[in-house]
């Protein structure tokens, strides 16, 4: 029963995120925003949809149950969701599931973007580990961790290329190194 409620919450959350993304897409395109990565976006949607289906199949088909120390993973999942909301709020109208860039926009350097270049992808990767691990769905964990790494190996360079072409991304990246800490190059 817990699994059904948990997976239902995730599906509802994804639907709400797609609604937010669509609203933001309409706005950014009206402002002159440009899109990239349409082909791999379809693959990314397929991967994330199949993740849910694989999780359902493995949990029900192989009769998986909650891991012994489930509360630790639930806590990590809740933290990841707080991070997800922080990312969405920090980017505001610029947050999207697609690669949409507004030419000449300034790179956002608030929220988790003060320290990390791609916090949303870190959060998604953590979810693809935490959720299957929570229900001992190890086949789903391994397969979709690999699929996620493959799609991110295409998506991140595409996104960075678009940001470099249309914004001050390169300037910001040359002045600041963002990973886990905020550093400024001394002059």
From TrEMBL:
GO cellular component term, pick one: membrane
Instruction: Give any Pfam family that matches.
Output: ICMT
Report how it sits in the membrane.
Multi-pass membrane protein
> Is Transmembrane helix included in the keywords of this UniProt record?
yes
Keywords attached to this entry? Membrane, Methyltransferase, Transferase, Transmembrane, Transmembrane helix
Which residues, if any, are the signal sequence? none
Under what name is this protein listed?
Isoprenylcysteine carboxyl methyltransferase
> What is the organism of origin for this protein?
Heyndrickxia shackletonii
């Amino acid at each position: 029963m817990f699994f059904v409620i948990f997976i239902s919450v995730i599906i509802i959350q994804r639907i709400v995120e797609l609604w937010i993304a669509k609203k933001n897409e309409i706005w950014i395109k009206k402002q002159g925003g440009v899109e990239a990565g349409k082909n791999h976006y379809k693959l990314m949607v397929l991967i994330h949809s199949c993740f849910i289906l694989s999780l359902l199949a493995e949990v029900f088909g192989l009769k998986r149950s909650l891991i012994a120390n489930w509360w630790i993973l639930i806590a990590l999942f809740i933290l990841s969701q707080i991070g997800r909301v922080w990312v969405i709020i920090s980017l505001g109208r610029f947050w999207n599931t697609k690669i949409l860039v507004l030419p000449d926009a300034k790179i956002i350097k608030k929220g988790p973007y003060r320290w990390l270049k791609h916090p949303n992808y870190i959060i998604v990767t953590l979810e693809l580990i935490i959720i299957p691990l929570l229900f001992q769905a190890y086949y789903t964990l391994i397969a979709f961790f690999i699929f996620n790494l493959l799609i991110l190996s295409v998506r991140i360079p595409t996104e960075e290329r678009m940001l470099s072409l249309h914004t001050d991304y390169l300037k910001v990246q040359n002045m600041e190194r963002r990973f886990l800490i905020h550093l400024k190059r001394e002059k």
